[in-house]
Design the sequence.
């Protein structure tokens, strides 16, 4: 990976770290980098974070964010921390905090890298020297940036680092950054925003290895032509263009497009009146979710907890208090709770696989039509971002075991809103 950075990414370090001789401050307060997937972004970001934390001359506060809170946690704790602890820089590390909600790498000099949720209130009350916005292709608006910019206000030498692979037409925030960055390059601007892009020309032949070599910094180092050729064979054209060639496409990897989900979500949603509760357990049986919905399609995640010992008592309490049914997938992990709930006097609605498929399709359509409104919650945001389909006959249901995402909250939402 060091070869990749030396050959192609060193220019980022050379330019973005320039100091204005007059002010003594960074020449570029904002740095935007867009590259194909698997190009060494993790190593680049970690190097930038370490330079800030260890070489800046005073204690630094770095914040790392990704498309969802769970993605940010995985990237910092599962990817960056092992790289750091396997390097000579491990002697500078005081502790790696892995507890959910408090993930951080703390250095002996007092500097730290914290994970922040991707919400419009994530940076409140903080002072930051280096906010990192990773994978902003998933952002339909600028709420992540707007949450972090005020935290930089009292730091004259702070920098905002934005890095991502290209997105789709729905990636409004990134698309605006790309448009602005390209214009500044044409103007040969030398302050304010430093913009770096590796992407294939729009009219280039995507099957020609020359095109691959034109835009993939990792090709010939950590990625081979054979790997790219295999990806071209197995991936859809849109996914290949976006992931490998860093071209904006009109497709969206998400089952629920980010624009649709964000339109459905609000902090003001409050279910009322006649209620029903959707209940689901994740495939590992390590956590469970309860979502409430009313007759007008207003939904809210009211419980998401690790373990399962709390579930029955909580469900009985809700069912009795609101005289409402508990809806669950009888063939999913939550199905084992049905008989005990019934024995305690709870009305249980058990969905078959066919009914689950119908409910999934209904939720998808109603979200797109604006007939379902969801109170925003990070757990639901994560589930919606990572959800995948599993075919069942001519229909589909949410895939519980496809990827690392816990979709129990989304399944519970599907059941409650049906």
Sequence:
């Amino acid at each position: 990976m060091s070869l990749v950075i030396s050959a192609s990414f060193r220019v980022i370090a050379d330019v973005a770290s320039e100091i204005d001789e007059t002010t003594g401050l960074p020449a570029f307060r904002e740095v935007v980098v867009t590259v194909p997937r698997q190009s060494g972004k993790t190593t680049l970001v970690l190097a930038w974070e370490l330079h800030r934390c260890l070489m800046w001359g005073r204690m630094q506060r770095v914040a790392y964010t990704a498309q969802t809170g769970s993605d940010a946690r995985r990237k910092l704790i599962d990817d960056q921390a092992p790289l750091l602890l396997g390097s000579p820089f491990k002697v500078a590390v005081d502790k790696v905090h892995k507890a959910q909600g408090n993930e951080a790498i703390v250095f002996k000099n007092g500097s730290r890298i914290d994970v922040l949720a991707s919400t419009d209130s994530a940076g409140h009350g903080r002072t930051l020297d280096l906010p990192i916005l990773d994978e902003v292709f998933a952002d339909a608006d600028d709420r992540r940036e707007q949450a972090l910019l005020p935290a930089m206000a009292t730091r004259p030498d702070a920098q905002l680092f934005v890095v991502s692979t290209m997105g789709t037409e729905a990636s409004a925030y990134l698309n605006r950054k790309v448009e602005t960055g390209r214009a500044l390059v044409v103007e040969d601007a030398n302050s304010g925003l430093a913009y770096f892009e590796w992407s294939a020309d729009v009219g280039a032949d995507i099957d020609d290895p020359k095109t691959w070599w034109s835009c993939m910094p990792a090709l010939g180092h950590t990625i081979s032509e054979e790997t790219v050729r295999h990806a071209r064979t197995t991936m859809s054209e849109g996914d290949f263009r976006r992931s490998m060639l860093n071209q904006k496409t009109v497709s969206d990897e998400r089952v629920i497009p980010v624009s649709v989900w964000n339109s459905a979500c609000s902090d003001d949603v409050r279910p009322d009146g006649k209620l029903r509760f959707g209940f689901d357990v994740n495939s590992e049986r390590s956590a469970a979710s309860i979502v409430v919905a009313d007759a007008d399609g207003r939904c809210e995640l009211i419980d998401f907890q690790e373990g399962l010992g709390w579930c029955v008592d909580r469900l009985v309490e809700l069912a009795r208090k609101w005289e409402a049914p508990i809806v669950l997938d009888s063939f999913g992990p939550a199905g084992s709770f049905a008989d005990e709930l019934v024995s305690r006097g709870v009305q249980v609605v058990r969905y078959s696989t066919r009914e689950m498929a119908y409910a999934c399709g209904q939720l998808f359509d109603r979200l797109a039509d604006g007939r379902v409104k969801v109170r925003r919650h990070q757990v639901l945001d994560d589930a919606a971002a990572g959800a995948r389909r599993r075919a069942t006959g001519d229909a589909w249901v949410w895939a519980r075991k496809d990827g690392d995402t816990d979709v129990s909250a989304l399944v519970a939402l599907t059941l409650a809103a049906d």
Remarks:
- The chain is about 40% helix and 20% strand.
- Residues 267 and 338 are 32 Å apart (CA to CA).
